[in-house]
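Query structure, 226 tokens:
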């Protein structure tokens, strides 16, 4: 099945699950869950095909409905949403895509959620040297119309070795470099949703291209992949 729609019934199931988040209820409705899960997976596969028309996607990771409650105060056993991520191919293509489906809380996200220590240092050194190209991309009016402002956590003061008075300290202090776009239920359930998601992910490409270039070269612009 090549599904390009998220069904009202799938959202209805997630609402019921949120209101009946117990093992007994879930087990009694597991066959319904499996049907909706299969349809949603088909939607993600369809989206992957579209992404591959303008990018190179290595794999999809669909997240399990079961929650790990060992270290959580919330002991409800199931997630009342569907979610999955798309990994880009190879070391030269950095960044990734994420789609979260939830009644009243559907969103897409993209960027760099948890860069490793080496990548984070390389990004900060780039901003220390020059952030002109980066700011030009994220401040572009067409880009901002889709993705809004750069989001993500940061440190409260300058990282070790960086000047707290640097002109780009607002960027240097960041630990995450992500963008999020929210959708209403009406938008998520419309026939245009998959097109809107795909176009949004296409619009992030200048950002990915620049970040990939930064993360695969040294400060002299020499490739680190050879």
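Result returned for the query:
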């Amino acid at each position: 099945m090549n599904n390009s729609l998220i069904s009202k019934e799938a959202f209805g199931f997630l609402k019921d699950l949120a209101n009946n988040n117990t093992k007994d209820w879930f087990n009694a409705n597991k066959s319904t869950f499996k049907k909706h899960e299969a349809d949603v997976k088909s939607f993600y596969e369809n989206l992957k095909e579209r992404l591959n028309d303008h990018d190179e996607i290595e794999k999809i990771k669909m997240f399990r409905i079961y929650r790990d409650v060992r270290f959580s105060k919330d002991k409800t056993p199931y997630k009342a949403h569907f979610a999955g991520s798309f990994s880009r191919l190879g070391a030269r293509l950095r960044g990734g895509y994420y789609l979260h489906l939830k009644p009243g809380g559907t969103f897409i996200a993209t960027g760099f959620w948890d860069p490793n220590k080496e990548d984070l240092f390389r990004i900060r050194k780039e901003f220390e040297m020059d952030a002109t190209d980066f700011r030009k991309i994220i401040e572009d009016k067409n880009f901002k119309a889709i993705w809004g402002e750069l989001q993500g956590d940061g440190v409260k003061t300058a990282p070790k070795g960086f000047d707290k008075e640097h002109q780009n300290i607002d960027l240097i202090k960041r630990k995450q470099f992500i963008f999020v776009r929210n959708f209403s239920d009406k938008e998520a359930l419309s026939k245009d949703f998959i097109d809107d998601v795909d176009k949004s992910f296409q619009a992030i490409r200048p950002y990915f291209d620049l970040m990939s270039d930064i993360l695969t070269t040294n400060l002299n612009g020499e490739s680190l992949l050879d």
